[in-house]
Amino acid sequence: MGIGDLFKKARKAAADNKEALEQGVEKVGDFIDDKTGGRFAEHVDKGEEAAKDFIEKLDDEG
Fold first, then answer.
1. Is pLDDT at 62 greater than 60 in this prediction?
2. Residue range 7-43, pLDDT digits in tens
3. N or C, fewer C-beta in 10 Å, the chain?
4. pTM
5. Domain tally for the chain?
6. Rounded CA separation 58/62 (Å)
7. Phi, psi of 39 (to 5 degrees)
8. Distance CA 58, CA 13 (A)
9. DSSP H helical segments within the chain, as ranges?
10. Is the alpha carbon torsion for 36, 42, 47, 52 positive or negative?
């Protein structure tokens, strides 16, 4: 099993668990907002959206 096989396996596992990954992204964003008093909420939201977009594309690229 080479590195490519491991990458494919990880991508499939992530694609099969999109909902959990998206919830994790949301929790991290909320944690950051809480710890920073919301000062960077706009940037955090952009990062959350980018991560969620990437998660949505996992099936398309695999």
1. no
2. 889 888 888 999 999 999 999 999 999 999 999 999 9
3. N
4. 0.78
5. 1
6. 6
7. -60, -25
8. 10
9. 3-16, 18-36, 41-56, 58-61
10. positive
